[in-house]
Amino acid sequence: MRIKALLALTVATLSLSACATADRYDAAGDVHALLTAIRDRDRAAFDARVDRRALKYEIETRLLEEARHRKADNALMAAVAVLAGPAADIAGEALIRPETFRAAASYYGYTPDRPLPGRVVIASALRPAGDGRVCAAKMNGPCMLTFTRDGSVWRLSGFDPEAANLHFKR
């Protein structure tokens, strides 16, 4: 009886592992397409692999967190709450473009003078992030970029400003 239970547990574990691997491999194709768009400064291909609304939400959330961290008074928090959305829109338009993401690509070693790695290599740098998402991270490092499946396409949907070294001056 114990052998059957152990076998069932093993099969379940392998099945879950295979799903995570399939997601990583599937996402790697779109991450490769995003890296190619960044390298080639192809705005249309870049926009097809980026969830601008989600990234702007990340910026807005970060602005609000900074205000809370600084223990802003109620009047300042109200002003930040009102202005965070428009400020995130402006920052998003200025920052969410291929040229800006070249630094992130360079961090991972994807420089214009080197060929981009294949899907298997990229998949090895991705790890499950929960809720149908995967994230890009260096070996045992923090997740820097997060990708979410949107229909049949994986889109860049988040970033970790701490891991990306995007700190606000204090």
How is the largest sheet built, in terms of strand order? 1-2-3-4
Biggest sheet architecture:
4 strands, antiparallel
- State the end-to-end distance: 61 Å
The low-confidence runs, each spanning 5 or more residues with pLDDT under 50, are 4-20, 166-170
How does this model look, in words?
The structure is a single chain. The chain has 170 residues and is of the alpha+beta class. Helix content is 60%, strand content 13%. It contains six helices and four strands. It has a four-stranded antiparallel beta sheet with strand order 1-2-3-4. The protein is elongated, with a radius of gyration of 19 Å.
What descriptive keywords fit this protein?
170 residues; alpha+beta; four-stranded antiparallel sheet; 6 helices
How would you briefly describe this protein structure?
The protein has helices spanning 2-40, 43-48, 52-69, 74-95, 98-107, 119-125, and strands at residues 126-130, 133-136, 145-150, 153-159.
